[in-house]
Amino acid sequence: MTKRWPRGLYAVTPDEADTSQLIAKVRLALAGGAVAVQYRNKSAGPTLRRAQAAALAEICREAGAPLIVNDDVTLALEVGAAGVHLGREDGELAAARSRLGPAKLLGASCYNRIDLAVAAAGGGADYVAFGAMFASPTKPAARGAPLALLGDARRRTGLPVVAIGGITLDNAAGVVAAGADALAVISALFAAEDIAARARAFQELFERSVTP
After folding, report:
1. pLDDT in tens, 34-51
2. Which CATH number fits domain 8-206: 3.40.50.20, 3.20.20.70, 3.30.1360.40, 3.90.1200.10?
3. Parallel, antiparallel, or unpaired for β 83-86 and 67-70?
4. Is 42 an active-site residue?
5. CA–CA separation, 194 vs 32, rounded Å?
6. Whether residue 2 has pLDDT greater than 50
7. H-helix or E-strand spanning residue 105
8. Average pLDDT of span 71-77
9. Domain spans of the chain?
10. Higher model confidence: residue 136 or residue 54?
11. Burial profile 125-143: b = 16 or more Cβ within 10 angstroms, e = fewer
C-alpha cells in the first residue's frame, strides 16, 4: 500500500466494547469495499483501545486498506497503524507529522472552515475533513458545513477531501458530486442490517461518479 489517500468509503468505527463484534463489523465493511477505516472509540479505556486498534491494524493490513487512529498519535505508532486523524484540539499537525514521519498518513478535521484546511495543508496533512454535512446522530451539536466547501477546499489545498456527518445513502450522491474524495460514515454503515451490502452501495457511488 502506497501513501495515497484512497477514493471511496471511509468506515469510521462506532463505540463498541466487544472487540470480537467490532472486528466482525469492520471485516464486513472491508469485504463490501470500504477503502479505509478509522478507529474511533470515545468510551473505551486505554487498554481496550490499544487491543482494538492492534486487532484492526492487522485486519486492515490484510485487506490492503489504511487504518487511521482517531486523535492519538502514540497509539497509532504503537499498533503500526497507517496514520492518525486529528481534530483542532488534538495537538499541532506539524508536531504530529514530525512524530509520524513522512510515510504515515495524517488527516485533519476542518469542520466548516477553509482557513483550517489551508493551514492543515501547510502543516503536513494528507487529507482534510469537513462536517457535519448533515445532522449527525454521533455529533448532534456539530456546526453544518456547506457542500460548496468541498470543491473549494480541493482547489485551495490540492489535498483529498473527506466529508463526514449525517451521511446516508439518500444524501451521499450529492456529497460525492460536490467534490468529496471520501465519505466518512459511522451510523449509516455499522447500524445497517447487512454491513457488507451497505458498504458496497456507498462504494458504488464513487465507481459511477467522475471526479470534478
Report:
1. 999 999 999 999 999 999
2. 3.20.20.70
3. parallel
4. no
5. 10
6. no
7. strand 105-111
8. 97
9. 8-206
10. 54
11. bbbbbbbbbbebebeeebe
Tell me: pLDDT of 1 over 50. Answer: no
Which residue in this structure is represented by grid cell 484492526? 56
Q: What is the mean pLDDT of residues 83-104?
A: 93
For residues 147-167, average pLDDT: 96
Marked catalytic residue, from 27, 61, 139, 156: 139
- Cell numbers at 41, concatenated: 472509540
95, amino acid identity: A
Contact 108, 65 (CB under 8 A): no
Catalytic residue of the set 7, 49, 97, 109: 109
Instruction: Determine which one of 40, 49, 104, 154 is catalytic.
Output: 40
- Is 40 designated active site? yes
25 is catalytic: no
pLDDT at res. 197? 98
